[in-house]
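This part of the workshop introduces the protein records we will be handling. To make this concrete, we reproduce a full record directly below:
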Amino acid sequence: MTDALHATLLADQAEYAEAVRAAVDAAAAYYGAGDSALDDDAYDRLVRGIEAYEAAHPDQVLPGSPTGKVAGGAVTGDVPHTVPMLSLDNVFSAEELAGWAAGLERRLGRPVERWSVEPKLDGLAVSARYRGGRLVQLVTRGDGVAGEDVSHAIGTVHGLPEALSEPVTVEIRGEVLMTAAQFEEACAKRTAHDGTTFANPRSAAAGTLRAKDRPYRCEMTFFGYGALPLPPDDAGELAGRLRELPHSEIMELVARLGVRTTGATPVGVVAVTAVEQVQARVEEIAAARAGLPFGIDGIVVKADLAADQEQAGFSSRAPRWAIAYKLPAVEKITKLVDVEWNVGRTGIIAPRAVLEPVLLDGSVVTYATLHNPADITRRGLMLGDHVTVYKAGDVIPRVEAPVAHLRTGAEQPIVFPDVCPRCGGEIDASQQRWRCARGRACHAVASVSYAVGRDQLDIEGLGESRIVQLVDAGLIADFADLFTLAREQILGLDRMGETSTDNLLAAIERAKEKPLNKVFCALGVRGTGRSMSRRIARHFGSMDAIRAADAEALQAVDGIGPEKAAALVEELTELEPLIDRLVAAGVTMTEPGVAVPRAAGSDTAGSGAAAADSPEATAGPTVDLPLAGMAVVVTGAMSGPLGALSRTEMNELIERAGGRASSSVSARTSLLVAGEKAGSKRDKAATLGVRIATPEEFATLVASFI
């Protein structure tokens, strides 16, 4: 178990009493305005510490303790719930999940026949009451017994219609939240109004749902996760069905009534029959977390059948037939200590937040991205602020917003640079992302190091120290200069003898034969990388065709939208002198396996405007590519002819054979290459009916491209 999941250690009765006070205050803020000073992980650890202390000292338990109470016992309401609106107990690992499932089956005296698994949405729990198909009341969870009436929000929440598709009387329970897009829009509106911003999507949704007199409107979204009969019409046909149907089928019924449910999320509601399948589904949802358009903090596992739920019953605060599998926190509160200004290989000046170290998603985070000066201004950040830091999956941590209610008055403005932090030259601030006016020349060492790296030109013997020598000696300013180096110039460098010089020159000569996708990647065009460079090279076939393409033509490449296309055209124009020198040096400018039509009226492929004038200027892939039009996912350890290939090399192989390499399985996946220990991706592919191949079968399919 990681430190993030350990309970807070309480040494004595005084620490216990302080912990109870802090937990109750945090719960009141969390379930109230949504602006708790403790993040979810810190609150969970605090409550687990309180539980441990109370177990060891039962005679010292305080009556206000949050343990065993809905919403931590901190929030009350004025509208009674028809049925208590309870919390869920938590587990934090596969072992704890299996233990809980085994305990439930012991309580039932038989195996659970079917489980349902769905995402645990990070929003505000509400109850929506419909009478005769019309939405008449909206109530928050409150303390689980009664909640706050927020009916003024009716008509403002997407997914929660004012009228159902049938004139039924029913209570729908679910979560109100803000998607990432809605949160960004809400922050922009609030900043324009009063210069502040929301701390996170949950607090934004909580505050917005309660607000009655804001001069601006923020959108929210509802996802239902349950339904129950609503008195006094709780003896009819629909009420009977709600009491008898499995949870997964109730969600289908609610969706047919026109309400958006958790089943409509990208990870949906799935019913399975074995605990092993439950764990596999948990892993799938956890893996998809980073790509979801809204926040989740766990996965909810339920006994699906109504009979199992009825027999298992409830504790004072939670159903015994359901559990929340909590995921590692991807959001924490810490302090913004400083801002560093770094210059990248293309001259981009990027601010980076220096934080008080915080454990986030299993790793200690000290730095986070701040995007650009405009973003800092929009979020209203100051040095010394408590800030929410967000991370999902492998995404670089980012600072979300200041926690304004924790400000002390000692915070200081962030000072923006007025000259390039690296070279002291002029800054181009004409766009949101500031850039040194010298561009790549400002950080030539980084730019050349990237170009000669293994996944680009792969020039052996050109480490960073050697590149520094070449730049400092004035022999190179960019990587095109490498191809014009003379033997005598290299021999003049420190620790470069005849053998090492000849080896380096030979490696540079071999680099001229690299395919177009490697050369294009070496250019370091902003917004492209290895995968996008391969797609561009396969689509156009030659550098001439790429340079002749306008923004509209570039958008024909998978993954390039209007904004990126316009930026590519602009940067390729900027790179024309560098590309011209690469052409003059004899560097390969075509992609193997792709037909390159000749410009009309010429014996050789045209370039520049000449190529653009030809109707055949844009190259296309040759026919009979075995993976043409296919989206291919690779998982597990490769074997046989593919055993020595890295994942990058597998992706290159897929794209050489005409396919598109992807990292996740979906309904759009054409083929899954499943090696040893393929895991949940194989299970999901089987569920979706995606074709599955062994590494050996795939090797046979693409044999001519290996």
In short: The two ends are 43 Å apart (CA to CA). DSSP finds 24 helices and 27 strands in the chain.
